[in-house]
UniProtKB/TrEMBL annotation, chain A:
GO terms for molecular function: DNA binding. The lineage of its organism: Bacteria, Pseudomonadati, Pseudomonadota, Betaproteobacteria, Rhodocyclales. Residues 7-102 form the Putative DNA-binding domain. Pfam families: DUF2063. This is DNA-binding domain-containing protein. It comes from Candidatus Propionivibrio dominans. Signal peptide: none annotated. Gene3D superfamilies: DUF2063. Keywords: DNA-binding. It comes from the Bacteria.
UniProtKB/TrEMBL annotation, chain B:
Pfam families: MbnB_TglH_ChrH. HAMAP family: UPF0276. SUPFAM superfamilies: Xylose isomerase-like. Belongs to the UPF0276 family. NCBIfam families: PRK05409.1 (NF003818). Transmembrane segments: none annotated. This is UPF0276 protein IPJ48_20010.
Length: 270, 300
C-alpha cells in the first residue's frame, strides 16, 4: 500500500504528463476503477489542470495572446506548462517565468519582441496587486534644508517597474488596449519588427488601473539610479550624463504625481 | 468513527445569514459596486485577493462594508504534505485579518505534492493516514486564523483502491477530530454519487446537522459516461431535489449559488438564489409548523 505522499506523487505526475505505459502499473493500481475507465477519468482531471494553467497564462498575458493568435499562444502555453510546474496554490501567480523562458525559445525568432512584451505584461500584473503607494509628503520635502537635499534617497514605489527594450513596447502595448478595429490601424503604424529607438517602459498604477508609459533616456537613468539606492544628487548626475538638458524638477514632479515616488529618507549612510 | 474518540471542540454556528448568497466573480465586480444589488451575502475565492494592495483589496473592503462576506479558498491543499502550505496559509491569514470575513472555508482535498501545485481539487484516499494529515492541517489553519473554518466535500471522478471508509464517514471524522465545520456541496455529492454509484441520500443522512455551516449549489456537465463539476450551468433539477432532501435532514442552512465558467448576468444568478431562497423559506415554515425533528420530518 503506497504512502499518501507516494499516491500524490504518482497521481500528480500523471496529471502533468500523458499516461504513458511506463508508469502505468503504479498509477493504475491506485484506483478502484478498472484501468480503461480510470484512464478516461484521469484524462478529465488532466484536461482540467492543463486548462486552468492555460487560462491563467492567457489572462496574465493578453497582449502576447493577441500578438501570437489563439492557436500559437496555446502552443506556447503548453510548452511552458510542460517545463514549468506551478509553485503556488494561487493560480494568479502562475507564469512569472514566461519572459525568461521566451528569451531562450525559438518562438521568439520570428517575433523577437515577445520576451520583452512578456516582461512588461508580468510587471503590469505585479503592479496591479502591489502594496498601495504612500502619498509623497511634499511639505516635508520643502522643509529639508537645501544643503541636505542632494543627499536624500527617494523611495520608488514597490510596484513600479522600468523595462528597457530595443522594441517599441509601449506603442505595441498601447495599441492593444484599443478596440479591435482601431487596434489594427494603430499596429500598422508601428514597425514592430525592427528595433527602433530604444524604448523605456515605466509601469505605473493610477486609481487601481495599471499602465505602461514611455520614459525619456534621461528620466529612465534617473529612476534606475534611485531604484538602486543612489542619492538624489547621484541620480541627477546619472541623468545629466545621458542628456545635459535633463530637468530634475519637472521629472521629480511627474514621478511624484504618478506615485512612482512615494517618499524620501535622509542619507544616514557614512 | 468510534463514538469514544476525543470530543471535538463545539463548532460555533456560522455567522452567515440563513439565506441564499451568491459567489461573486470578477465580471460582476463593477456592477455590484455601482448598483449594490439586493443579494444577502457574497462568497469570493480567497486567492483572488492575496495581493498586497490595489484594486482587488480595495474592492473587497468596499463589499465588506455593505454585505456579509465569506472567503472560500481553493489552494491550501489540506490533504497534502507539500512545502507550499505555510506560505499560502500566511497569505490567507493576512487577508482574513484585513477583511474580517463572516466565514472562512476550504476544500477537503489535495492539490499539491512536494513543491508543485496542481491548482485543482483532487480527491483523497479515504485512509487513516489521509485523515490524520487533513486533521493536522485543518488544526494548523484554525490555530493560525484563530477561528474555526468550514471544509467542503469535493466532487470526484476517481476512487482509490486503498480507501478504507466512505467519503461521508471521512468527512464527518475530519470535522469531529479537527473541530471544523462542514460546507456541504450538494452538487458535488450528486456528481460523485453518479460517478461512483453510491446513494446521495445515504451520504446526506450520515452528516450530522450541527456540523454543517453552509451548503453549496452549482451546475455540472455530462462528459462521456460520467459527470464533471464544471460550475458552468444552472443548478440541475435532480440537484434541486437533493437540496430539498438535504434541507429536510439538516434544517435550513446558509446556501450559496456558485457559477465559475461562462458566467451569466447577475440577474440569472439572483434567479438561482431566489429558487434556493424559496426552498429555504419553505423549510423554515415547515419547521415552525411541525414539532418533528428534521430527520423525522423528512421520513414522514
Amino acid at each position: 500500500m503506497p504512502s499518501l505522499p507516494e499516491v500524490q506523487a504518482v497521481f500528480g505526475g500523471a496529471l502533468r504528463n500523458d499516461a504513458t505505459p511506463g508508469h502505468s502499473s503504479a498509477l493504475w493500481a491506485l484506483f478502484a476503477e478498472p484501468e480503461a475507465l480510470a484512464e478516461r477519468r484521469l484524462a478529465a482531471y488532466r484536461r482540467n489542470v492543463i486548462g486552468n494553467w492555460r487560462s491563467a497564462l492567457a489572462s496574465s498575458y493578453p497582449v502576447l495572446a493577441q500578438l501570437l493568435g489563439a492557436q500559437r499562444f496555446r502552443q506556447l502555453a503548453d510548452r511552458y506548462i510542460a517545463s514549468y510546474p506551478s509553485r503556488s496554490g494561487d493560480l494568479n501567480a502562475y507564469g512569472g517565468e514566461l519572459a525568461a523562458w521566451l528569451d531562450d525559445s525559438s518562438l521568439s525568432n520570428e517575433q523577437p519582441y515577445l520576451p520583452d512584451m512578456a516582461r512588461l505584461e508580468w510587471a503590469l500584473l505585479v503592479a496591479y496587486g502591489a502594496a498601495d503607494a504612500a502619498v509623497f509628503d511634499l511639505a516635508a520635502l520643502a522643509d529639508v534644508p537645501a544643503a541636505v537635499q542632494p543627499n536624500l534617497r527617494l523611495h520608488v514605489w514597490v510596484g513600479a517597474a522600468l523595462i528597457e527594450s530595443p522594441w517599441p513596447l509601449v506603442d505595441i502595448w498601447q495599441a492593444h488596449q484599443l478596440a479591435e478595429d482601431e487596434r489594427d490601424s494603430a499596429l500598422a503604424a508601428i514597425d514592430v519588427r525592427s528595433p527602433t529607438a530604444p524604448c523605456r517602459a515605466l509601469v505605473v498604477r493610477s486609481e487601481g488601473r495599471v499602465l505602461a508609459l514611455a520614459l525619456t533616456a534621461s528620466a529612465a537613468a534617473f529612476l534606475r539610479a534611485l531604484q538602486s539606492g543612489q542619492t538624489l544628487a547621484e541620480a541627477i548626475a546619472a541623468a545629466l550624463s545621458v542628456d545635459p538638458a535633463f530637468n530634475p524638477g519637472a521629472t521629480l514632479q511627474a514621478f511624484i504625481a504618478q506615485r512612482t515616488l512615494t517618499g524620501f529618507s535622509m542619507n544616514d549612510a557614512t | 468513527m468510534p463514538s469514544s474518540s476525543a470530543p471535538a471542540a463545539p463548532v460555533p454556528s456560522t455567522r452567515l445569514p440563513l439565506v441564499a448568497g451568491i459567489g461573486l466573480r470578477a465580471p460582476h465586480h463593477a456592477q455590484v459596486l455601482a448598483e449594490r444589488p439586493a443579494v444577502a451575502w457574497w462568497e469570493v475565492h480567497s486567492e483572488n485577493f492575496f495581493s498586497a494592495g490595489g484594486a482587488p483589496i480595495e474592492f473587497l473592503h468596499r463589499i465588506r462594508q455593505d454585505y456579509p462576506l465569506s472567503l472560500h479558498g481553493v489552494g491550501l491543499s489540506l490533504g497534502a504534505l507539500d512545502t507550499l502550505f505555510e506560505a499560502h496559509l500566511a497569505k490567507l491569514a493576512a487577508l482574513v485579518e484585513r477583511i474580517e470575513p463572516v466565514s472562512v472555508s476550504e476544500h477537503l482535498c489535495w492539490s499539491s505534492a512536494g513543491a508543485r501545485h496542481f491548482n485543482d481539487l483532487l480527491p483523497l484516499p479515504y485512509t487513516e493516514a489521509a485523515l490524520e494529515q487533513a486533521v493536522a492541517r485543518i488544526e494548523r489553519v484554525q490555530e493560525r486564523l484563530q477561528r474555526p473554518i468550514l471544509v467542503e466535500n469535493v466532487s470526484s471522478y476517481l476512487q482509490f483502491a486503498d480507501s478504507m471508509m466512505s467519503e461521508w464517514d471521512f468527512l464527518v471524522a475530519v470535522a469531529r477530530r479537527s473541530g471544523c465545520g462542514i460546507l456541504l456541496d450538494i452538487n458535488n455529492i450528486y456528481v460523485s454519487a453518479c460517478n461512483h454509484g453510491f446513494s446521495a441520500q445515504t451520504y446526506i443522512d450520515a452528516i450530522p446537522a450541527d456540523l454543517v455551516g453552509e451548503l453549496h449549489l452549482a451546475g455540472f456537465e455530462a462528459c462521456e459516461d460520467f459527470l464533471i463539476d464544471t460550475h458552468g450551468q444552472p443548478v440541475h433539477s435532480p440537484v434541486w431535489d437533493l437540496y430539498e432532501y438535504a434541507l429536510g435532514h439538516l434544517g435550513a442552512k446558509p446556501t450559496l449559488i456558485e457559477w465559475d465558467v461562462d458566467i451569466p448576468s447577475l440577474a440569472v444568478l439572483q434567479g438561482e438564489a431566489a429558487q434556493a431562497e424559496q426552498r429555504l423559506r419553505a423549510r423554515m415554515h415547515n419547521v415552525s409548523a411541525s414539532p418533528l425533528e428534521p430527520g423525522h420530518a423528512l421520513a414522514a
